[in-house]
Amino acid sequence: MKAVPVMSTILRWRNLAFIVLILLLLAFPYGPLFPWSPVHPGYNTLRFDRADVIHPSGTELPDAYRHVDEYIARSERFHRLPVKSRLTVVLCGNWSDVRRFVLHPRAMLLAGATLPMGTIVYITPKVQEKNLDAGEFLRHEISHATLQQNQTLFAAVRMVRQEWFAEGLAVSFGEQKAFVTPEEFIAVARAQDLGPIIDPAQRRLAPQPYNMRLGYQAWRYFLEYLIDTRGRDRFQQYLTAYMARPTEYRQLFAEAYGVSLPDAIKRFENGIRADRWKPDPEFAAKQER
User: Which domains are present in the chain?
Assistant: First the structure.
């Protein structure tokens, strides 16, 4: 077998290293390392006390983003957890930028996303295109960031994948009206079993395709129901344990509440049907006091 000359091998490795270096450099201003780049072509940066907001140049920044410090402080009160690190909020100017910046398999479907380390938040053009409330979605993502900054990276990823708890809490803190209305949710709760909608272990039994707009509100209202009926201290006990051991969410729930998750969901469902419980529009504000 003919030996490859040493000089030829060195040149190949040098060329490969050069290509990797160029790709890495381009990943900062034009790719997934954009938030960490010292320059942001086509974008301006506003610095606040606890966050940087990076937004498209030549556009007017929606007022909600100027309240980012206020939302962070509110999130700390709502979740009873500290936001330990500075946030970077990237308001993506177009879907092409979303595709380049956001390493998330569903990025093109989302209105917002937060990286699992809890310091980088993206808001996509969907918020503007659908004429959604920017403040709702910014608060939603800050909720995720708050939890994630108090978790290991592994735990944060596992918790987000289960959706029901982290998303329900984020929708609650966001006081979001972008999904089904309270009246629409109550109508569904009176007509069908909520277990498959709320509990990840029962998801396969839910009507397909899964109605995510309904799911977001079902998760939210179930968590609010738990706090209303069993107290915030018990909920915080479960939240703290679940954040550390997300794969054990069902066992931890039974330990915290003395009842299985499916049984608690059934009680929630029965409470709605008997008019013993209904959504409170002031819920989030009460938690922040």
Answer: 36-150 (3.40.30.160), 174-287 (no CATH)
